[in-house]
Amino acid sequence: MLVDLQGPWNPLFGRLGLLLEVHYNNPVLFFAFELSVVVGVILLFWATCARKWGYIWREWLTTVDHKKIGVMYIVVGLVMMFRGFFDALMIRSQQAIAVGPDSPGVLGAAHGYLPPYHFDQVFTAHGMIMILVAATPILVGMMNIIVPLQIGARDMAYPYLNALGLWLTVVSAALVMIALFIGDFSHAGWVGLAPLTELPYSPGVGVDYWIWSIQIGSVGTTMGAINLIATIIKMRAPGMTWGRIPVFTWTSMASNIIALTSFPVLGVTLALLTFDRYLGTHFFTVGLGGDLMMYTNLFWIWGHPEVYFVVLPAFGMLSEIIPTFSEKPLFGYVTMVIASMAIAAVSWSVWLHHFFTMGAGPNVNAYFSIATMLVGIPTGVKVFNWAFTMYRSRMRFDTPMLWAIGSVFLLISGGMTGMMLAVPAINYIVHNSVFVIAHFHNMFLLIVYAAFGAVTYWFPKVFGFTLDERWGKRFFWFFTAGTLMVFIPMYTLGFMGMTRRLDYVSHTAWWPLLNAEMVGIGLYAISIACFVMQLAVSIRDREKNAVGADAWGTSRTLEWATHSPVPYYNFAVTPIIHDRDEWAWRRKHGLTSLKPDRYVDIHMPKNTAVPLVLGVLSLAFGFAMVWRIWWLAAISAIAMLLVIIYRSFDKDTDYIIPASDVERMEKEMLARAERVEGNAPAPGGAAGGAYASPQAPSKRHQGD
Amino acid sequence: MSSHSAESVDPGKVSLWDYEHHGHDPISTRTLGFWLYMLSDAMIFAALFAAYGVYVRNAAGGPTEADIIHPIYAMWESVVVFTSVFAYGLGMAALKKGNRAGVINGLLAAFALGLVFLGMEYKEFADLIADGAVPQRSGFLSAYWTIVLTHGLHMIFGLLWMLVMLFQVMREGFTQNVVYRLINLRLFWHFQAIIWVCVFTFVYLKGVL
Amino acid sequence: MSREKFPGALRYLALMPLLFLGGCSTQHFWLFNPKGPISETELHYLILDVAVMLVIIIPTTLMVIWFLWRYRKNAKTQAAYDPNWTHSNILEVIVWGVPVVIVAILGYYSYVGIHEVNPYNPTILASKAQSGADPLEIDVVTTDWQWLFIYPKQHIAVSNELVIPTHTKVDFRLTSTSVTNNFFIPQLVGQIYIMPGMRTKQSLLAEHAGEYHGFSASLSGGGFAWMNFKTKAVSQSDFDTWVAKVQQSDTHMSYADFEKFARPTVNIGGKTTYFSNVEPGLFTQVIKAAKAGKVYPTPNALTENMQSEEFLKHSN
Ligand code: HEO
Ligand code: HEM
Ligand SMILES: [Cu+2]
After folding, report:
1. Rounded CA gap, C248 and C255, in Å?
2. pLDDT tens-digit series, residues C249-297
3. Does A384 contact chain C (CB < 8 Å)?
4. Residue A105: beta bridge partners?
5. For a tag on chain A, would you pick the N or C end, based on fewer CB atoms within 10 A?
6. Which residue in chain B is spatially nearest to C291 when comparing CA positions?
7. Which residues form a coiled coil (chain A) (predicted)?
8. Is the pTM of this model over 0.80?
9. Which CATH entry fits the domain spanning C123-314: 3.30.230.10, 3.40.50.300, 2.60.40.420, 3.30.420.40?
């Protein structure tokens, strides 16, 4: 061993002996464990009873279909968001109980029910999960599904790499979940404050879980970024020029350029920290030439672009939803594209605003302050363009539009508080306070709103039926009530001086507002129930809610120019693009038939289990590294290498769907479309948007 | 916006579907992806170089740049790397002619020279250990080891890849898969040489200036 | 918009939290109750910044709301519908131009403001401090998880309590033994990091006698939430009396004593101790030791039960 480890280590089991020495027997954990096990057993039981294993293996686990991969990304993201919500519930309830020196303490805590190290793990896990294995997968999944459809591609540029990216993200989530039961998680905040993450101050395995979970997941994200950029550059259908690419695809491009360039920096940062913890080097230690501020710099050089990595696709979603429900093309397409790229570019030069209070000179701080505020300009342009899209429009307020509107308001308010934080003279009194927490939840919720809007908006495209509107609206309003109820008090507490990450609240004057936030969490819980109901009701009514290709009747971009649900080959014949809003253009000219003159052979990638195998091996590798079980780590690393080499000899990676098969499948889908015709507005009908004649409203979307 | 004005089209005349479209050219798509990967790899080195620029001052009383850096030795290492890249280039010239033996010879030469480089690097670091200049000694040494060995690790992967390619060329000849991999490996190998130039300039040369 | 009753009513529920804004008395809003020129200036810029931004935020918000209402889909709004309006050069200039102007103004104030409250040399204090009086020097050392305030000229030190005279500029030098902390007294001065092996600076001036809350604003591990200290601003004469009293204390502080003091301790009891005969140069010695690799490791045992014996051994 190159470093001094507290606690036992042996060659066979690594540090697993720690489990016996430190008692990880917290009832709170036990509850979480029970819950996960029960849910897991139910799912396994269902799969076995319903004889679904073959289906799951063939259609999901080994798939390379970008839509299925996207769906799995989103499911993982939603499940992890639920876990993150549980963490939030624990943070909030601890802070509502542990107030003042007289507050009671149970389960080994002096106040409340979570001792400090446990509480610290909870918010660290919450932050890391929400950003990296909830928000990011949901957005990546959305891009995965929609971008190839929007540019008329059959699949991503590298379908196999795409599946690998998914499984690495799943491994990242799995490691966080394992940390809940076997060992502990990092207690140093989602940013991993140095030198708190160094071995002397974090002697357990928590920080190692945090490192490997992020490291493995970020490799997956980088692969996804390469894939998406290459797809957009190389896989566009004929006529899809750069000036015609839908805005969501443009923002995905901007976002993935950020990911491609910034995630490697995170990788390096974590690797250096790993060397410190595993090899005893001196990168971020205090003594012997270490430089802890180097960590902070490197982390935020990734961390700041990362927040724009997640917000840009959300902006893209808004740019698709708002025109559809305004029945009008997006205002200022070119400006929108320029603004996205500008945000991506500026995002690289502002990282220091996360530590104005480090003691840098006033001119350095002033430079980063002004650079930060520059982002407000292109973002503002986006807000104005959405507003002008609404100007002289005909707005319908279906659920996706409600989410989009909520998102715009969150952007305006969160942006304003961000601009306050960007002024050092103000930052000095609100840095590390719950004001910052409120600012970025404001921003992240903008993304969550946009993502829920996008899920509702594109759901019928992927599954062929719409989500229930009534429960969807309940979900939206309860969620919004929860948002306001949690985060307005939080801003207020910021002005009262409350700092973040407190497991014990010494000042009793904050108590009423903390309780108000508790109520807000309750509203969130109700909204989640509404969401579950929405899914259940929609699945029950799927026949009634079935829709054809153009689910909303006013959508504009290419993804609506194929069947719903989208067949695995996307388009029977590659479409030729004539306009920026191709589908709206076709609708205008009455060219909405999805039946080409003839069918041709389609070339498709074959399913493969290799990505899944690599995923399993990297999980073993991550786990072994966390617990320092060197033999297992070595074996799994070598096995990964061998599997990759083995795969490179596999020549049987694609196949041809004969034209006759395509024709047969297309016939079925056209027949289905005919059958569900009545459920949705007829394409080119009254709700046909910009190119339709302004007549009677459609059957489904009655105006009020 | 002109594209949104209501120009008229004759529905009978526009073609909506492209029956001949076979997508993209697989080799260029693969190569583009590899360029993108190398961009991300370049970011790794950019971050390491930036860090090195800071740590180079943090010798913490231990050996400094001047004590451990031997630019002449490193220059010979550079010569070896560049000869290896050149040999690989010869192999690729043979690929254009479809000359299998030429490709194999080029790869073999590049591989052997790569091994020589790693051997030289091994000796350098064995000497450092003997002198007690281990990465645990100071922030400067941590950074020095990390940056040079990250490049070394890339070289090891390159050699492994070359072995696999040698095998595939012998077994399968110039199939599409083999060709794009050979092209990507050339990019990778060149890239390692470029990174080495940066290491040589920023670490070795700067160390004695 | 749908006519369903239930979600309609729910919309009003969403407005409920606004009640909280009015309901709280202002004395608890530390940021709005500054007691020294630095905090005052920071509040001043906060208000200024928001005011400038509202010039654009309020109209934008109102515009969006108005559009939402005006162009909702129904027979009455049909007439205004214009699906071909997707570009306008004049608007283009406005949407880029107005934010540019606003950001320029904000940037200017940001630049001016940072110099006024710059922790290393706050120009705002130069005009406020009583002329002639020397600034009081205090060295701040944070440990896991306590505060030590050293008054080097007076050769005294206090743990977890800060006493300062009013109307006198106080200059702080700050460092930490183990991990990063953050020095913050909301009503007197903004935050500055306290980093091991390094020295940061901060200055403040209290204009009103009173007791203010101070704490670490940066997570530093298990005992972080208890890392609070009272800041007592007292008159110069009271301060002098207090110094004399502390100088009488039997508890001394040499570097060896400090090494004992700096072991991980959770200050749950809020204990303060007075030290006399503080070893000169203690502050620099702490920095030097940290740079040479001195650490105060956190034991695994601290990760568990706060009522366990191991834990209690580390609390105070
Ligand atoms: C998706 C996430 C996201 C987004 C989009 C943003 C957007 C912004 N952020 Fe925030 N942030 C995000 C996530 C975070 N931020 C943080 C912290 C943080 C800090 C440091 C706080 C501190 O620790 O002391 C600053 C200074 C900012 C500034 C900004 C600014 C100026 C923007 C701008 O992009 C906003 C631009 C939008 C505007 C301005 C509104 C719309 C514009 C209009 C209507 C036009 C006109 C207006 C003007 C010209 C004023 N952020 C942290 C803290 C992490 C941690 O410490 O744990 C996180 C996670
Ligand atoms: C469901 C609604 C949510 C609630 C109620 C909630 C609540 C909280 C609370 C109470 C904290 C701790 C505040 C403190 O340190 O004092 C917190 C921290 C945090 N949350 Fe959330 N959160 C929610 C959703 C999200 C989402 C969607 C994201 C990101 C996409 C997110 C990201 C974070 C991050 C990064 C932190 C900081 C963790 C740290 O300090 O290291 N949260 N949240
Ligand atoms: Cu930022």
Report:
1. 19
2. 999 999 999 999 999 999 988 899 999 999 999 999 999 999 999 999 9
3. yes
4. A112
5. N
6. B60
7. none
8. yes
9. 2.60.40.420
